[in-house]
Amino acid sequence: MRNWENNVRRVCPYVPGEQPKDKDIIKLNTNENPYPPAKGVMRVLKDYNADNLRLYPDPSSEELIKALADRYGVKSSQIFVGVGSDDVISMAFMTFFNSDKSVIFPDITYSFYDVWAEVYNIPYKTKPLDENFRINENDYICENGGIIFPNPNAPTGVYESLDKIEKIIKANPDVIVMIDEAYIDFGGESCIPLLKKYDNLLVIQTFSKSRSMAGARIGFAVGNERLIKYLNDVKFSVNSYTMNSLTQKIGVEAVKDESYFKDTTNRIIRTRERAKKKLLELGFIFPDSKSNFIFVSHPNKSASEIFCELKNRKIFVRYWDKPRINNYLRITIGTDKEMDTLFEALEDILSD
Amino acid sequence: MRNWENNVRRVCPYVPGEQPKDKDIIKLNTNENPYPPAKGVMRVLKDYNADNLRLYPDPSSEELIKALADRYGVKSSQIFVGVGSDDVISMAFMTFFNSDKSVIFPDITYSFYDVWAEVYNIPYKTKPLDENFRINENDYICENGGIIFPNPNAPTGVYESLDKIEKIIKANPDVIVMIDEAYIDFGGESCIPLLKKYDNLLVIQTFSKSRSMAGARIGFAVGNERLIKYLNDVKFSVNSYTMNSLTQKIGVEAVKDESYFKDTTNRIIRTRERAKKKLLELGFIFPDSKSNFIFVSHPNKSASEIFCELKNRKIFVRYWDKPRINNYLRITIGTDKEMDTLFEALEDILSD
User: Fold this and answer.
1) What's the ipTM?
2) Residues in A touching B176 (Cβ below 8 Å)
3) A17-37+259-350: CATH homologous superfamily?
4) Residue B22's pLDDT is what?
5) Rounded to a whole number, what is the distance in Å from the CA of B351 to chain A's nearest CA?
6) CA B253 to CA A179: how far, in whole Å?
7) What global pTM score does this model have?
């Protein structure tokens, strides 16, 4: 070991889901949308004058923020955009979780929260979900340095009502409560309207799931003007120009095409509901999902075995070898055709 | 003030150069390249299948890193890419500057270094450049927590020889020395070859200047494998998918078109040398520049006055109201035509 290594920040990084290069597989492992982005996205790319790329992008992403403000019925000054919701949440951890008290989140949740806490030296505690993977709101009514959880939760897909969430926000006026709504568009109700009543709330969403643009990296936060100003101050202290020019433009197109957005999210919801029936028939158990994935377990065969056998058949789903969830698989909702292939494979695997 | 504001990270953010929306101006204020990106960039955009955007990008940016490794004669494992060199340097500050001792950099330099030090709570000290804006290498031979400076320096354009830089790297084996080579392609010699001799060196470059892609946000670092691994660990603890799919593809095209790269950088160098003569004729003084800008002062008229009068004529240059440099203007090298318009305007302003 060299002396300079003494001053290196040592971390245990988040491991993203596999991104196989083989185009031949059915990819149900990272909650991507099976449908292409809105047509306007393609048009912007075709018509784009590459000469624009020689200039720096608009550091304030004004156009994209305006489109989002119009869509969500808030002011432009209430929106912050970043390179995927991971960038947004990471900045929000840096900006708002600066207390000596522990930040709290569920024991089973998006596995990046503890990674961010570690990298920014933020103390944290987890609160166990109940046996049905539900949040007990009383766990969040205690001294803490901030709160974050996804709604619907990942990787369970479980959605909590706005009533329950409002109780948590209301009981914690002295800290920031972040609700990570990556999957909200698949049947849940956003808590953006609660911003009118609470100034300690930050709502985070992404273009990666419901807007079919995981490859573009766009996430955003909605909050009161003061929160957004603090977020921007930190962002402009880290990297002034995070979102590139092209991404800003295609983001606008995606937000504007509301009918396409509704159409594709509804298609995914329909396929999900059909998948629930089929999975029940196959003997799977799962908490009810309001997201674009289902978190399943089977009484007769271990999740790790099913995972491997699906992989052999070129169907990728997600598996975590972690306490409480190591007998579950997270299956992303694909097209009806992809799901049919999955069901056939599962039938085959379970009949062995 | 609300109680939650007690735990907000308060910072004084970096202020980027103006990005006016008026297309009618001559923009010589943010060191952008006056020529468009390589032709392959346009081709990729035209042919891009937007359906790819529904999938997450390759988190390891393998193709782009391979293209850079080939171009710079190093292994892929020696390269780290990020969303502009600001993203790369910011990650490098987080990763390597974790000592209680002060990080050191010049008093006149890229004005983001102290902002990063502040946001990450890194102690720092500045070392004054001499009266000719040159680095005194002995200032950097002392106890410290790490070193960073650009070569050529910004906003002065002054280039330091590899001999001087090697002395600094050699004298500091226990800390990381970062050389920010944003402007190296305009006539300087990169210190990438020094990586064979020193494992405490990190070299940072960008696509924003010499590759005409400020709008795309691509920066990279070259270092030994261990440094790059540590950087990646921190990156994967902050945001797994930083560089989007399209950007990775257009980046490859830019790197591969070596003849276009040489052609445009040479054109800028020729225009710069012509500009030096013209500016001398107009009575300006300036340190010799090896970058795509010149840092000028005039004995008869204050920089702030010239700045305003140029702005009135829709010519934007950069001015900082800071000690030691508040009588200087940084003028980016544009096309020959843009520079001719600038010279005429300056002649006019100075004859008043």
Assistant:
1) 0.96
2) 4, 7
3) Aspartate Aminotransferase, domain 1 (3.90.1150.10)
4) 81
5) 32
6) 40
7) 0.96
